[in-house]
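Q: We require from you a single protein entry containing the residue sequence and its fold in token form, and nothing else.
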Amino acid sequence: MSEIKIDWKGHIKKYQAAMEELNLDFCVLTRVKSMTYLAGCFVPWKSAIFLPKEGAGEPILFTVLLDVERCKAEGVLEVGGWGPMKGFYWEKKIQSAAKKAGVYDPKGSPPRIGVELGIDICVTGQMLSYTEAELLKKVFPGCSFVDFNMKTERIQFIKEPKEIAMLRKASEITDIGQIAVKKELSERPAGKIFTENEIAGIGTLAMRRAGSNYEWTFTGNQEIGSGYRASWTFNGCTPATNKEVEEGESLLVDLHSEYGCYLGDLSHNYVLGKCPPELKKFNDVYEQLCYTLIDNMKPGITFDECYEAVRRVADKEGYGNDLFFGIGHSLGCIGNESTPMVLPGKEWGHMVFEENMIEVAAIVFNRPGLGGLRLEAPTLVTSKGAEMLPKTHIEVDYV
């Protein structure tokens, strides 16, 4: 049990205040980030939270029957079970809850329902599906759907002090994982060859011993890439394999932790043995890019401005085409890992860094046939600048 006590009930009040602004009768929240943020527990199954407007009863998490008791024990919400059988249909459970809360009367006006619409780049995002929408329309005839997504994002964008403390703890755990990996690599006996999967296991074991409960990413748990597997163009996904790590090639070790429903994400880079001069130069440029990114994650700087500062360094050194255009992504509770992204352009480019936001500083720098490097480090924006939560250094480790 975590010694840091998150105010889960306070999270509910934030959502209900936003619901009042939109004049909603209730919400049906399906995004994993909303379920974690409100329920305070890991919810891996197709689930939803029924959240009535303030003063109309308590929210209910509806998850599959086989996981009801665990979610009751580990979370803070009332939990109901659903399943594909008579008496347990998902939409009927929500309809019954809305009637009981007094926010739906079949003889009254159709309800205004807050839902989370859109496309999430993560398969774990769980926006409302077409089928779910049709089922809700069936049991709430004439209802209006109001997209709640912008409210969800804004509420979770700025972190509370206790959330920051939890994220800091999760980052301490990823540091422990990287320390264990470096130790094993540095002390390897002559002739010892590691596979990517072995390295993933070393990091995982150390982090589990330190209190991590979950290798949260859907991209293969711990992401370990070496050689050609690290250097594909725009390579931001390296689920570990049985490939053997060779000397003189890029080795990126991307570790993921979870502590009290909050996430850690730390990617660090190594080269075993003698490093070819051309790769060493490439690595040096990567380090410049990382420091430029951190230096520009300050309150008031737009995502566009931050990207352009990093891109100028890459262009000046002749590596502009090797830099991925995304240089950051969000992080918070389980499910909060994709938006906002630090990207140029109309989607998020106009956004500004704000005090107490935490964004994963991310540099993806790849050239096929040469090497590939990745920085991912949760970074707190403060009034004085940016603070990387992990303590593992940015520079490539030559071991």
In short: The first helix runs from residue 8 to 21. The CA atoms of residues 210 and 277 lie 37 Å apart.
